[in-house]
Structure formats: structure tokens, C-alpha cells
Specification:
The longest helix is centred in the N-terminal third of the chain and has 33 residues, at about 35-70. This protein is mainly alpha-helical. Helix 1 (about 1-30) runs parallel beside helix 6 (about 150-165), helix 3 (about 80-105) crosses helix 4 (about 105-115) and helix 3 (about 80-105) packs across helix 6. The chain has 12 helices and no strands. It has a domain at about 1-105 and about 120-170. The chain is about 60% helix and about 0% strand. The protein has helices at about 1-30, 35-70, 80-105, 105-115, 140-145, 150-165, 175-180, 185-190, 210-215, 240-255, 260-270, 285-295.
Amino acid sequence: MLHEQLLLLISTPIYLIIIGAEILLSHWHLDKFYSVKDTLTNVYLSLLNGGIDLLFRAVYVVILAFFYEYHFFNPAFNPIFYWGALFFLEDLAFYFEHRVDHFSRFFWAVHVTHHSSTHFNLTTGFRSSVLQPLYRFIYFIPLAFLGFAPIDIVFMYSLTQIYGILVHTQYIKKMPAWFEAVFVTPSHHRVHHASNVKYLDKNMGMVLIIWDRLFGTFQREESDEPVKYGLTYDLEKPHHLTNVVFHEWKKIGDDLKRDLPLSVKIKYLFKPPGWSHDGSTKTAKQLQRELHSKGL
């Protein structure tokens, strides 16, 4: 895929320059936005994700190509329409994938890796959900049905992912109001990475924030609610790769071993993270309702 290789050649030096600049700023201002162990963990996870994606790519491209053979619409009648529609529809598909990742514990067990750092900087964008390439393509099957070529679908995802990485910064406070209304901004994405109850499961978009506004998952960053990064619990061995990737799977395994009816075990697997049959743990929505009832 030549255009993806060109994208990599262009984006890599950009990443190196801006990440280097952010590291220098963080060190100069004593902000402590970076730590060596956390940054190395982000790099390792990114390499693991990239390796799995590369190995599995032939499989999901073939699957997308199969569905493309049966496409019932031809959007390629106009290049501007084709690429514009692909951008909007793929960003929407990512929103729904991201939403499922947050609202189903099975998929959260994969995605939680991306949220596991207590730091928030440009390298956090590379803290990949390692196993996500194994199922992400499923959300793009409708695009193939609509007549978008698999190679273009993969390219558009790579292109929008560049933007998704660049919003992982604390050095841009707010963008102009019109921009904040349409696009995901660093402020929006800081909320997404927060462990504050008020901020949980908000701002799922990759490039466009309009999906969150439309589907009820938008939350602005508020000055009286400073963001606390990471998970709602302290992660043991936060720099141990196996633990970072599989700790939620271990918790799921513990729940499935409990002496409970099969129907309840299935709920522990697919209900939102935090769901429990006895109320011993709570979902983000339950916690937010409690917070709202207290007037906070």
C-alpha cells in the first residue's frame, strides 16, 4: 500500500519533532507530563499493536474485499464526494466502535490498555489497544458494501488516526469556539482520558465531536473539575506489559469462575464495565446518576 507508506514517511518526522518539543517543554516547565517508564510502555504497546495489525492485515483486507464485491452503490462518480463521504462515514464507524469498546466489558478489556496511563501526552496516543486490529475491521464492512475500496478504507483510518494522536496533549488549552463545536480537540480528549466520574465514557470521536453531541456522549472540560488521568482504580504493575494488556481479562476470568448462573456470567462478560449482579461495583452511568442526585 504505497500511499500508506508515504503517509508513514511524512508523519514519522512530524511525530518526532512535536513529541521532542513537548518533552522539552515538559522538562523546562517542570510539568512532569512525561516519565521514562510510561513513555517506553507506550512505545512497546504501539509496536505490539502495529505488529498484530501488519500480520492480520491480509486477513481483514480480504474480508473487506469480499464484501466490496457485493457493493450496491458507486460513490466514486466524484472524487471529492468519494473521499469526503469516506471520511465522514469512517469517522462515524469509529465512533460506534469506540462506544462499544467503552460500554461492553468484553471489548473494554481490550481498550482499557489505552486508558491505563496516569500521564497524558503525545505518546499516550501510541498507547494502543493491542488486540483491536483483530476486530476493528468489522465496523468498516458497511463501508465496503457502500462501494468504498478496502485499500482506501485502511488509508483513511491511518490518516484520521494521525489527528487522533495529535489531540493527546495538555499544552493546547482551548481551540476557537467554532472548532470546539465541530472537531475533537485536546480539551475534549483530556475529558475522554479522565477517571473523574463526571467525565467517564465521554467524547468518543476520533476527528469529529459532532457524533458525541448527536448521540449524547459529549462532555466539555470544566475549569472547576480538573482532569485526573488513568483508570478508576490503581493498576498494579503499571509498566508490566502483560499486566497492562491482560489485567481486565484476568478480572473477567475471576468473575466467570464464581458460582453464578450462566446468564449472570454472560452479563459479567458483555454488560458495561463495573456492572455487578449485587451492586458491589457500579457502571459509569450508575456512578454518574449518583453524582447527579447529590447535585455535584
